[in-house]
Write a structure and sequence with these properties.
With about 600 residues, the protein is an alpha/beta fold. The protein has 22 helices and 14 strands.
Length: about 600
């Protein structure tokens, strides 16, 4: 049992015996004592002051006295106003450490047959361009959140919805026909998603050039857009696609195939994957059918022009278009169809959409409509709304080709990691293969950690140079500390140091602080799952790493009595394992040597 729970239960017994107050242990949440006060854990006594009819200080002193007399884990206390600072018996921490060491799955909960099923949607790319920096934040958040939810004891299904139809796809297709002379990924020596992205950028350049020419002839912006021949061709291609024209569909399948192969390569390097991938081209028709079903049930309505709408004014929103007058669908229709297919495929208890905060309104509307259409989890769907990510230079634009490509960024991070690690001498004595493996692990770890350590709800600026630093709140700093610990443990084995009973050792303040920090891990994982925040894990593992480095600096691990060395080796091993587990929840790997 964690020390927090021990104290919670003891305080619950104390207030019952002293004041006849029923305080559930779960309602008593000890916090780490502030560094300027003596103690390890602090409990607020304000909730019981009124019933006890005593001043906060008096209540704190009475509870503290009771704890010292009745709970072996407590050796002392002090009261500051309404805060009871509890001193845990020093040798008690040895048992806490032993419990952590013995629990191979420390910090996580098992998944059982009775566990709720949570579906997490992330990535959601379009097939007209490669994945970029914005996608990276989405994908890494979704993948990490899935790992955290599973660590909290949930069954998790990871899904992706690919936007593989629409005018943007036809723009790339038309550009390939017009200006790329039959190029293939093989003939152009590029990944398929990059080739198709180049087509998309090319379309935009030709379209803008045409608009400029038309406006120079005296047309207004609106007139030029209406007269554009290249845009008219793209719209005509979209109509042919809707009509299942064999030639257009064949080209669509070929170019999408190039993109999927490219996506898979990028996902593999990122270390992410999906249990089920849905495609808009296969879900939008189900969405249209579900909308028409809602129309028959009277939860939706049709206007005179034939379009179908949802009236959400009673919910404080407006009216939402679901089918255009010509019967074509909108994004909301596709999301409804995807929801239906998912509900048919899985017994979903909770649905989480990882989508940027510019879509907040969309998901407010989707939740209401799904509920009206009979999806039991509709009104409780979670929109994991995250902020945008930019570079120091500013925003990115896909059509202008100014996005930061995910593949290029990952390659740059790995190259930089190799260069920095070599300059710092962290690769001395290693083979070229080992150096390459370290560079890959550290470079991608730096990227992932930097994107995940920020509160996901906030906008952020990604700075590649800052992220690769081996000092400070970065992935490389944490990975290097892990490698340092593993080196210490190897030296202990080489020196023939064996584990002995350390239960009688009185740990010092630095050792106690590190044990206490390790003991916090299960609570941090649980809170990260409740609040959907990988940043809590990232900042916890950074704090743990700092705490270990202070311990490493102040305490000799391999040169002391056998009992003290054994305690410190156990503490080191538990820290390394917790770092590895925490980084794993962020999708970050570790290296044994650096």
């Amino acid at each position: 049992m964690s020390i927090d729970k021990v104290i919670s239960q003891a305080v619950s017994k104390a207030v019952k015996e002293l004041y006849d107050i029923d305080a559930a242990p779960g309602s008593i949440v000890p916090q780490a004592t502030r560094k300027e006060f003596e103690g390890n854990l602090t409990v607020m006594v304000f909730p019981w002051v009124k019933a006890a009819r005593k001043a906060p200080e008096a209540v704190g002193n009475e509870i503290g006295t009771w704890l010292v007399a009745n709970e072996p884990a407590v050796s002392g206390y002090n009261v500051v106003k309404g805060f009871l600072n509890i001193v845990v018996t020093p040798t008690y921490w040895n048992g806490v450490l032993a419990g952590i060491v013995a629990d191979e799955s420390w910090g996580t909960r098992p998944v059982t047959e009775e566990s709720p099923l949570v579906m997490v949607e992330y990535s959601s790319p379009n097939t007209n361009k490669p994945l970029h920096l914005g996608h990276l934040r989405n994908i890494l958040l979704g993948s990490s959140l899935s790992k955290i939810l599973e660590a909290c004891g949930n069954k998790v299904v990871k899904t992706n919805i690919v936007n593989d139809r629409g005018i943007h796809i036809c723009k790339s297709m038309l550009a390939w026909q017009r200006w790329f002379d039959g190029a293939t990924p093989e003939s152009a020596s590029v990944k398929g998603d990059h080739l198709v992205g180049d087509c998309y950028v090319s379309f935009d350049k030709h379209y803008k050039a045409e608009l400029k020419e038309l406006k120079e002839q005296g047309m207004t912006d609106e007139e030029a857009e209406a007269a554009s021949t290249v845009m008219a061709e793209a719209r005509a291609m979209l109509r042919k696609w809707e009509d299942a024209d064999p030639e257009v569909r064949s080209l669509w399948e070929k170019m999408n195939g190039w993109v999927y192969a490219g996506f898979d390569e990028t996902y593999k390097r990122m270390g992410v994957g999906f249990d089920k991938i849905y495609y808009e081209s296969q879900t939008y028709l189900d969405g249209k059918a579900k909308v028409l079903e809602g129309l028959e049930k009277g939860v939706l309505y049709r206007r005179e022009d034939g379009s179908v709408w949802a009236d959400l004014r009673e919910n404080g929103l407006d009216e939402k278009l679901l089918l255009r007058s010509d019967g074509t669908s909108v994004y909301m229709t596709q999301d409804i169809g995807t929801a239906k297919q998912r509900f048919d495929d899985y017994p979903i208890d909770k649905m989480i959409y990882v989508v940027g905060n510019e879509q907040n309104y969309h998901f407010q509307v989707l939740a209401i409509i799904l509920d009206r259409l009979g999806f039991k989890w509709g009104k409780d769907l979670v929109h994991f709304s995250y902020g945008m990510v930019e570079l120091p230079e500013g925003k990115m634009k896909s059509r202008e080709g100014t996005v930061v490509d995910a593949d290029d960024l990952m390659a740059e991070m790995v190259d930089t990691a190799k260069e920095v690690a070599t300059q710092l001498g962290k690769t001395d004595g290693l083979s070229e293969a080992e150096i390459d493996n370290i560079a890959e692990t550290v470079g991608l770890g730096a990227l992932k950690y930097f994107l995940l350590k920020v509160d996901p709800r906030k906008n952020m600026t990604f700075n590649p140079k800052e992220s690769i630093d081996f000092n400070g709140n970065t992935g490389p700093f944490i990975q290097y500390t892990y490698a340092r610990i593993r080196s210490v443990l190897r030296k202990a084995t080489e020196a023939g140091l064996e584990a002995v009973d350390y239960s009688g050792v009185v740990p010092n303040d630095r050792e106690i602080a590190l044990i206490q920090r390790l003991g916090d891990f299960p609570g941090v994982v649980a809170e990260a799952g409740r609040s959907y925040s990988p940043a809590l894990i990232a900042n916890y593992v950074y704090d743990l790493t700092k705490e270990y480095n202070q311990f490493y600096h102040d305490c000799s691990i391999l040169k002391d009595t056998p009992e003290v060395c054994s305690l410190r080796m156990s503490l080191s091993a538990a820290t390394a394992r917790t770092i590895r587990t925490a980084l794993g929840l962020l999708g970050i790997n570790v290296v044994e040597r650096m």
